[in-house]
Amino acid sequence: MSSMKLIFVLARKWRVPAKHGDVPNAYVKANKEAELGIFLRLPRGMVIPEDVRKRLGVAIDSELVLELLKDLYGLKQAGRLWNQLLHKTLIKLGFAQSLTDMCVYYRRRGGVLVVLGVYVDDLLVTGMEQQAVDAFFGELTELSIKDLGPASKFLGMRVSYNEDEGYDPDQELAIKEMLRENGMASAHTVRTPIGAESNEIGEASDELLPTSGGDGVVTVRKFQSLVGSLICMARCTRPDIAYAVHKASRRTHSPTMSD
Q1: Roughly how many angstroms between the first and final C-alpha of the chain, as a whole number?
Q2: Dihedral (C-alpha) 40, 41, 44, 45: value to the nearest 10 degrees?
Q3: Cα–Cα distances in Å, from 43 out to 25, 47, 53, 215?
Q4: Whole-prediction pTM value?
Q5: N or C: which end of the chain has fewer CB atoms below 10 A?
Q6: Which domain of life, per UniProt (predicted)?
Q7: Please, what are the domains in the chain?
Q8: For the CA atoms of 89, 90, 96, 102, what is the dihedral angle to 10 degrees?
């Protein structure tokens, strides 16, 4: 999140729109480790031609296995191998990795600086000149990167921009969806995210939430999941609820009905 905010700040300073890039099917672009053999059973429905079975000296398909030659989604090492491929590609293009933020890369050519933030297969790019940013996407053709234009949605956040106020990321859609899932789509708004009465709730002042239950029952796990979502929102776009979320997060071990 700090990487994304840095890119938006620089884009605002340089007046060059932050562009969103996406690498489709990123994980399968990386090669697996040469020293590691990975073998798979035949997928259901796959039929091996008779002449191939004879050439391999097997009678039935169940005697065959497939050797994986490329990286694949679902492998434990898939994310690491993709990150290594992207890192090597960027270094080859003259970029350097930030020493303080491993998700940020930068390159200076002819006095023109280009900076990008990386989140798995999503890239956020800006620079001192628009031409340099556009040229970057042309250099990454080997990874089949898609230029999605000026960032309007990134990591589940909606991004708006105007010349007077700069960039304004929000999670309105995610918040509305969370309210809908918890039956609060029609709830009334409040002026403050937390009231003074929250300080009066004792550690054992109310009945504990159940550990299991059917639809509509707020369980301990449901409470923990909700607090986790709120932590994400507080960190990303809603610092105004940070204290209230902090108070709620202290109760995740044994939440009560009052929580």
Answers
A1: 28
A2: 90
A3: 20, 9, 16, 36
A4: 0.79
A5: N
A6: Eukaryota
A7: 2-29+76-170 (3.30.70), 172-196+206-249 (no CATH)
A8: -90
Dihedral (Cα; 145, 21, 95, 71), 10-degree rounding: -50
b/e code 115-127 from CB counts within 10 Å (16+ = b) = bbbbeebbbbbbb
The label of the residue with tokens 């040469």 reads 34
Quickly tell me which residue has 């296995």 as its tokens: 65
**Contact 18/7 with Cβ under 8 angstroms?**
yes
Strand partners, 208: 256
Q: Which residues of the chain have pLDDT under 50?
A: none
Q: Report the distance separating Cα 46 and Cα 61, nearest Å.
A: 9
Collapsed DSSP state (helix, strand, coil) of residue 128: coil
Quote the tokens at residue 231: 């932590």
Under a CB-based contact definition with an 8 Å cutoff, are residues 247 and 195 in contact?
no
